[in-house]
Design goal:
By secondary structure, the chain is of the alpha/beta class. It has 17 helices and 16 strands. The radius of gyration is 23 Å and the shape is globular. The structure holds 6-O-phosphono-beta-D-fructofuranose (F6P).
């Protein structure tokens, strides 16, 4: 097996702190690297005054973590600017929130060039390169320009919208076709893959061999779907242990026999937290018998707080939680417990298992691993109920959940009532189907399928073979 070089903006360098803030990408890459030794390259998470210092290498458990600092300018233009104020909202279908500036785009290109220059020092011709996420779309092009003919794959963890939305991205014609420098582009759902294929076929007018293989300059790029999974059995074991921990027992004691509904999301507008709280309010208003009998715990670690839309949303959510608690709370009962503190994986696993229902209602999400982890954490004999947005990538596999439209607060309120009163037999049957979906597409399979597809030999058309051989 050739050496695997994983590249992403964030790198989860093992720090021994239980990695409490790990998002979906980090969870997936960490699980992949458990089974393939290699290098994980990316941003150190530090912002330094100058970028003179070379990348730093940290050796740990058979892997090398190679990290590089960003300058304040890089951080503002590449990370806060183009990645998170342009690509993030547009790829999540939120054209209204995108704030484009040419300077941010050039900062984004500059950091991609910097990553390529640092990688150029360590790459070997036989390395298998796997680039992750929207921060690094032009990286393969920058590597090819430095002479790297390696197999390079790209996986997008977030959604890819239809061409009508994608073309609203200023300079899309410079950016999106750069994906054709990869050998393989992986997406979370068939819908995302079809959107990209339509863009390449209609916007770029690229010739194709079949619906998902496009011919661009001297290579073919293949588009495939690889829904990201989790370490199902391991997460289930973690939840079983954690449910007995003093922390989870303490939370349960504090509920005084009430049922718990859980929501866990990074503080982000794509997660639909305010609408979810509105739906909970509606539930309390319309299904008044539940008042005083349930507690909704919303765990929401802050993120990207220096971006204006995020700090605005922080205020909006806490105002909403305060309003609902003020209107419906009693001296002895707080309807919503809203917590900004990040919790360890193990604490979350235990809390999932202790919750009768989970509200996972993003307005748009690439996959959403909270939904999968909630299912994996349940006691199969007495499981909780997953209420899942139809706009999360996870809804394709987890269609035995109660699927809802998160914009329709009336339906979400009704789903809550249904989840809390669902008979045990139905809960078991749904959970069995959901758990099966998880085991059928475990994280091991995700990585194996992606790397298998990346290394699979391609048959090039004759004319292209002639062009490539010079
Ligand atoms: O793919 C999106 C993602 O990388 C998630 O995996 C993660 O939860 C989130 O974005 C992290 O965002 P940031 O690196 O900006 O904190």
């Amino acid at each position: 097996m050739p050496r695997l070089v994983v590249i992403s903006n964030r790198v989860a360098v093992p720090s021994g702190d239980g990695s409490s803030r790990a998002g979906g990408l980090e969870v997936a890459v960490r699980a992949t690297l458990k089974r393939h030794s290699g290098i994980w390259f990316g941003w150190s998470g530090r912002v330094s005054e100058t970028r003179e210092a070379a990348s730093q290498t940290i050796e740990h458990d058979n892997h090398s973590y190679v990290v590089t600092d960003l300058t304040e300018e890089d951080y503002q233009e590449y990370y806060n600017g183009f990645a998170n104020r342009v690509l993030w909202p547009i790829l999540h279908y939120r054209l209204d929130l995108a704030e484009f500036s040419r300077r941010d785009l050039s900062g984004y290109m500059r950091v991609n060039e910097h990553f390529a220059a640092e990688l150029h020092k360590i790459l070997r011709p036989e390395d298998m390169i796997w680039v992750h996420d929207y921060h690094l779309i032009p990286l393969a092009k920058a590597l090819r320009e430095r002479g790297h003919g390696n197999k390079i794959g790209f996986f997008l963890h977030i959604p890819l919208p239809p061409p009508d939305i994608l073309t609203a991205l200023p300079n899309h014609e410079r950016l999106i076709p750069a994906l054709c420098h990869y050998d393989l582009v992986g997406l979370q759902t068939d819908n995302d893959a079809a959107n990209l294929a339509r863009y390449l076929a209609h916007e770029c007018r690229l010739p194709s061999r079949d619906e998902r293989t496009f011919i661009a300059a001297d290579r073919t790029v293949r588009i495939e779907t690889f829904p990201v999974g989790i370490e199902t059995a391991e997460f289930n074991r973690l939840a079983r242990r954690a449910a007995r921990s003093p922390f989870v027992q303490g939370v349960l004691d504090s509920l005084a026999g009430r049922m718990m509904i859980i929501g866990v999301d990074r503080l982000d507008y794509s997660k639909g937290i305010t609408l979810r709280m509105d739906a909970f309010e509606r539930f309390l208003a319309e299904y008044a018998d539940w008042r005083g009998k349930v507690t909704y715990l919303q765990i929401t670690p802050k993120s990207r707080s220096t971006i204006q839309e995020y700090s605005q949303m922080e205020r909006e959510i806490s105002t909403t939680a305060g309003r609902i608690n003020g209107n419906y709370g009693e001296a002895s009962w707080t309807p919503i417990r809203y917590v900004n503190k990040a919790h360890s994986r193990s604490a979350l696993a235990g809390l999932y298992r202790a919750s009768r229902a989970a509200l996972v209602t993003p307005l748009r999400d690439g996959m959403n691993l909270v939904a999968k982890e909630y299912v994996a954490a349940q006691d199969a004999d007495d499981p909780g109920v997953l209420i899942l947005s139809r706009f999360a990538g996870a809804a394709v596999e987890l269609n035995a959940a109660l699927l809802v439209n998160p914009y329709d607060t009336e339906t979400v309120a009704a789903a809550l009532d249904r989840a809390l009163s669902m008979p045990r037999e139905e809960r078991r049957a749904r959970h069995e189907a959901l758990y099966q979906a998880l085991t059928a597409n475990d994280i091991k399979l995700w990585a194996d399928r992606f790397l298998g597809a990346l290394t699979r030999p391609r048959i090039l058309p004759n004319w292209l073979r002639q062009v490539s051989s010079g």
